[in-house]
Each structure stands twice: as structure tokens, then as C-alpha cells.
């Protein structure tokens, strides 16, 4: 509860997001049961609205974003050779706020009903809805936004300022680069939805007129504000998974990532251009021909850097020495499914075709292909890939491969039919459809598919459980390329006994391998510790290095609690408790600022907890033996 | 006035933190002069807003004057002119994005539908 | 066990106050503050745009800006806030020079000027409400109060920070090692000032 260790926080994010993934999945199953047959009565229209709103809100804000945060939190400091993030207590704060926001939003189920205005909250419907459902959505998202914004500031400073010596920006692992772009997107996009949510909150709590049509308000104001955030948001959702895929493919092709620099620039380009396309979510709202043409063109352009990435991934695999593993399957699955989703996306960029597709299941097909077939596959791949590093043992490979194929089957069974249904005219966001429209068959297939997905998730959970008895793996079971594989599995609390000096991109790979005349990797001789110590004339590293880590603290949790207190109070218009909540938060911030980051006598009690600080199978650092690059 | 330090923001090796001891800040009197300039510009803006004969020049004039005040406070009071370019890049990115995105939004509301 | 020979780079942590050296030589907190301020541009940009979009769109017959605005009064208010930026930068200069006395004087002055500005806002709002303009009146009322209200809350938080710094200084806890703290609070304060520069022109002066 008081830990500020980025690894523990990463694990907390992962577990929490997985729970929300199950909840969001149950919501999806409810939707698919209702839609599996025409004129169904499994869910009332009201219940359906809550299910589909919560399914979207959960998966976007409480699954993909925090699951990506889990990976970034755990791995980023390791990958740049740091011992933690720039602001460890704020990191803990971000997690507790996320947890608070998620629980707060879900508590609505017991307090009158869950949000029911769609994950996109179009106005003036939202402002006029009775009950507190929408209020929970508004305040819940604001709380979640604070978690992501503080995380963004933290990680930006970490990447800019805490890289190991020799790790220039262009020597960072590509996952770090993609994460950095994402943090900047978060930094600048979140305030926009914050404004939208405040305007809605004021309309609902204080009867302002921002979306009051009678007073002359314009519903498009909400749409612009929401999608100005919403479009960068989809890149926030996909870029971490792209980074993960870019880490996995080279390891299992035993080749470096094809076109590292181009991949970095494409990621930056995607992040940059993502700010110029938002109104493609508004093609059917009457924005006029000039706006339509401009946004159509910009949307087509953004396919270019994305396409570049796809070609580079393929080129990475091309003529590589492929080792088929569960992570590789998910990574390749990502490339294939994301390409399909991207192709339907390109058809949306064309205004006339989008006018037919919008608000139909064709759109639903598109974003599930890129978000599930894309982001989730990437994240599952990452789970299989880094599981040994985090837990110290591998996930069962055969089960993993089986899980992939089952999930792949279920996923395509569920979502491929949506393309057909959409083009046949089935509208989205409807709780049922009449018999005889010609939609019955594919809806039924899709619903069956959704249960196949559910089965594959159970397989994953079983794998997690069954693998606990697997033998311990070493520091580098995959023979990988980046710094996190140079330390023990799991890493010690302080990460690196000595901050590494980096001499090249994929430094760990170059320390293990040199190249022969035909460019093939050749393992360097592994020196024994005695030889190494003698050569350096340095004493052996002590088992418990004297490293001061930031101390645990109660204040992040304490401060975080003030936010839901304020929110509950404001929903029920209890102004005094709301003020108390505000003062609570401020008090927490005060106490936090006055507390020193590292308590004076703190020596981490878990240092050298039975783990070797380093990987003795690695040869000497490149600094000694490679002339190209060289440590600066 | 002051000499500018030019720390390279993206050095690949670690550098000791420079707390600004290596360059001069504007003196107190220089800050007061800047403040007087800002006050004068504000006064000019207020006066301008009362002059009806300016017509169509009023709005661009006011905008330009505010931009100048904005820039002066950011560059001198917030010291961005003399500090590492990294800070400038981060802040200007936010500012530029705001101007671009919100500018386009306002434009779309005024385009022929 | 040893991973191999790594000669630790010769870097002094002296100037960073004992913290590990940073990749850029800049402080974490300062980069963080500028990132935050960049983010705030989008927050205020959204509120300002909402105001501008709804300008002139309120239902005819309801209160308009010329009905209520008191430009001379607000000009004085703006001048007060502007001068508080000066006193803020003088406070920073004082602590950089080691002048604890001036530091306290200027910190307190800045806080008081900020509080005066907020007081002026509160007074202005009560007058407007008496004249019939509140949050619910029309589009103008909603967008005006929310925009200036958000700004006012930011100023108030700034005043709290300044008074806290003043209190620390009075107790002798704002020594030369805390220059950066004053600098960062100053950056926030100046930002709040430049947002007002924009609001004053766009909302009050431009017809």
C-alpha cells in the first residue's frame, strides 16, 4: 500500500486491469447474448445501454490504457538503465487514483445504474439524462484522467532525464520511444476531455447552458472537444502495443528491428499527425465540404507512417531465423489483424463511403480489429514475453500457443461478421433488431465467437495458474536484446547493482554476440567472474550494494482517496463533504511535499534478495571490445 | 542584457546540473523596466478599446499587443529565453497544439455548411 | 556476482544536491513543471474557445458583455496581477542572491497582490449577479463564469502556495538550497498571469 517501487506498481496495474478486462468481457458477453438472436429480451434497452457504455468505457480507460501503463511502468526504467521513475511517489499516486476511479465508476451499478450514454457521451443527451448514471461517468473519467496525466508527466521526465550513460535517444529500445510519444499525447490530449467533462459536469450539477439547445448551445461543441481528445486517444491505445511487437519480432527472428530510425520517426509522425484528423469521427454531422475534404485528406495521409511500420515488421521477419513461440504468434497476429483493421480504416477516410458506414457495424468491426486484434494481441504477446522477467518462470508454451489459436479463432468469428453486418446496414448502438432483416445468421455466429474468446481467456488464466510450478528461468531465457534481460528474473529492488554504460542500440545483444564475415551472430566467449575481476582489478561487487532507494510513503494513497470522496459528494450535491474531500486532497499534497523522498536511514531490506544482481552469462560490456559507437 | 547559456539538451552522457550560476539574470532594475513596459502596453490596450475610429484595426491591434505581453512575460519573467531549449520546446508544443486544434474548431464553426 | 567490468563514469553529484546525475543536466521538477504548463495551455485553450464560440450566440434579450463589464475596474485588476509577476520575479532574484529579507517581502507582496486580484474577481462577480448575470442565465453567463472561475481557482491555489513559501521563509526553511522551489512556484504564477493577459483581451477588450 505504501510501495513506490515501479515494478510493484506495474504489477498492480496489470492485475487491476486484468480484473477490469474480465468485467468488460462479461459486459461484452451480455451484449452478444442479447444480439445473438433477433427480438431478444435478455437485456432491456436500458440495461443494454449500460452494458455497451460500460463495455467501451471499461476496455478503453480501465483495460488497454492501464495495461499499457503496467508494461511501461515495469519495463521503462529497466530498459533505460534506471532504478525507478523520476517521481516514485507520484507513480504510486497515479495507480491509486486509477484504482479509485475504476471502483468509483463501477460502484454506479449499485447506486442507481451504470453510465448509459455511450462511451463517447454525445450531447445534449448526456446533460438531460435523469438519474446519476452519467454523473458517475463524468466524475469517473475525470479521476481516471488525473491518473494518466500525472503518469505522463512522470514518464516524460524519466525518459528525458534518467537514461543510463551512453543511452542516447536513438539507442533507446523502440518500446521506450513509443511510450514516450504516448506520454506526450496524453499530456496534451487529456486536458481537452477534461474541459468537455467539466462543461458537462457544470451543465448537470449547476444547470449551466453549455449543451442546452434551448439556450442556443451547439451539440458539435461536445463532439469537437471529445474527438480532439478521442483521436489522439486511439494512438495512445495502439502505440504501446506497437512498441511491444517491435521488441518481440526481432528477438524471435534473431535479427535487429528493420529500420529502427524509420520506426521511431513513424511513431512520432503518427503521434503528430493524429492531431489533425479528429473530425473524421464527425463526417456525418454537417461540418461542410471544406472541413470534410481537409479531414479526409489528413486521415488518408496518416495511413502512410502506419503502413511503413507494417512493412518494417514484415521486413524484420523476412529471412530471419524464426523461432515460433507464443509471444511471436501474438506479435504476428497483431500485424495481420491490425492490417485488416487498418484497411477498413482507410475506407472510412473516404467521405462518401464513410457516410454509408458510419453508425453501422462496419465501424464496430474496424475498431475491434485494431483494438483487440491490435492492442490486446500485442499486450498478450507482451505478457508471454516478459512474464519470465517479472515472475521468474516461463508461462507454459504449449498452452500459450493453444490459447493464441483459440483466441485468434474466437476473435475472427466474433468480429469478421461485423464487416458484413455493417455493409448490410445493421446500425450500431441498438439493443435488438427485427427478424427477417438478413442479419440473424452472422449475429449468431458472432455471439458464438464471443464465447470462444471467453474460453481462450480462461485458458490464459489456467496457464497463469499452472505455470506457477514451472522451474526458475534465468535472466535471459529468450536470448533477447535489451537491458532488462541483463539482470536477474525477477530483478532486485534496485534494478541495477551498477548503472550500466550503454554503447549501442540493443546493447545486451552486442555484449553477447559479435558478427562473423557473413553477418551471422556469433556468441562471444563468456568469461568467468574470476577472470573478469582479475582483468578489472576491482573487488567483487558486494551481495547487498549500498543503494538508497526512495522510501515507501502513505501520502500518495491518502491523497488519492480525496478524489472519490469529492466526487461522491458532488454527485449527491453534498457540498460540505465535497469541500472536506478537497481539503483532504490538499492536505495530502502538503504532507507529501514536506516529506523527504528518501528517509535518511533507509536501506532497502530486500536488496540482494537471493537474486544475483547480474547475468553472468553476458560477456564483458561492449565498451571494452567494440570500437564502433563507443561509450561517450 | 544577459548571456544565454546553451546547454545541449540531448547529450548522451550525464552532466552535472547547472543551477544557472554560469550566466547572469536580469537585474532587479531591469525587471522593473520590463514591468513598466508591460503596464504601458496594458494601458495602451485599454485606451485603444475606447477609440471608435480604429474600426477594423482594433481587434488585430489588441491581439498583437497581447501577444507581445505574453511573449515578454514568458521569455523574461519565466526565463525561457535564457534557459535550456528543452523547456521551450515542451511548452511551445502545448501552446502550438492549442492554437492549431482550437483554431481549426472555431474555423469549422464559421465555414459554409 | 560481477557482471563484468564497468568503470563508473566520473560524474559529480554535488551540484544536484546529492541526487544522481541526470541525462540533460536539468532538474526533474523543472522539466515536469514546464510539461504541466504546456498541458495547461490546452485546458485554458478549451475554455477560451468555448467562450469565443458562444460569443454573440446567447438568446437575444438576455444579458450581454457590454451590459455588465466595467473595463476600468477590470483594468486595475489586471494591472495588479501583472505587477504580481514583477514581485514574483524579484522574490526569485532575492533568494538567488541570498537576500532572505527581500525574499520574504516580495513573496508576501506577490501573495497579497494575487489575493487582491481574486478579491476583485469575487467583487466583480457579485456585482454581475446582482445585475442579473449568473451561471444559468445564458451562454454568456455560463462560459464567462466557468472560464474566469477556473482561472480564479488557479490564482487562489497559487496564492496558497505563495503564502506557504512565505511561511517557510519566515521559519528560516527557505534557504539557498530551495531556490528551485521558488522558481517553480514562480513559473506557475507567471503562467496564471499570461492566461489572464489572454482572457482580459479576448473577453473584456475585444467587442
Which fold name fills CATH's third level, the topology of the largest domain in chain A? Cytochrome C Oxidase, Chain A
Overall outline of chain A: globular
Helix vs. strand class of chain A: mainly alpha
Strand composition percent of chain B? under 5%
Residue-averaged pLDDT of chain B, rounded?
81
Portion of residues within helices of chain A: 55-70%
What would you call the structural class of chain B? mainly alpha
CATH architecture descriptor text of the largest domain in chain A: Up-down Bundle
Write down the secondary-structure element order of chain B: HHH
How many β strands of chain A by DSSP? Answer: 2
**Model regions low in confidence, pLDDT < 50 over at least 5 residues of chain A:** 535-542, 601-632
Strand content of chain A: under 5%
Number of strands of chain B: 0
Biggest pleated sheet of chain B: none
Sheet with most strands: strand arrangement of chain A: 1-2
What is Rg of chain B?
Answer: 19 Å
User: How many separate domains of chain B?
Assistant: 2
Write a brief caption for the model.
With 113 residues, chain B is mostly helical. Chain B is built from three helices and no strands.
How are the elements arranged and paired?
The complex is a heterotrimer of chains A (632), B (113) and C (207).
Chain A: H1 6-35, H2 45-80, H3 88-107, H4 125-128, H5 133-161, H6 174-206, H7 219-253, H8 260-273, H9 289-317, H10 326-349, H11 351-357, H12 361-391, H13 397-423, H14 440-466, H15 507-512, E1 513-515, E2 521-523, H16 529-536, H17 555-571, H18 575-594, H19 622-625
Antiparallel strand pairs in A: 1-2
Helix pairs in contact in A: 1-2, 1-3, 1-14, 2-5, 2-7, 2-12, 3-5, 3-17, 5-6, 5-17, 6-7, 6-8, 7-10, 7-12, 8-9, 9-10, 10-12, 10-13, 12-13, 13-14, 17-18
Chain B: H1 28-49, H2 58-77, H3 85-110
Chain C: H1 28-54, H2 65-68, H3 71-97, H4 100-130, H5 139-170, H6 179-205
Helix pairs in contact in C: 1-5, 1-6, 3-4, 3-6, 4-5, 5-6
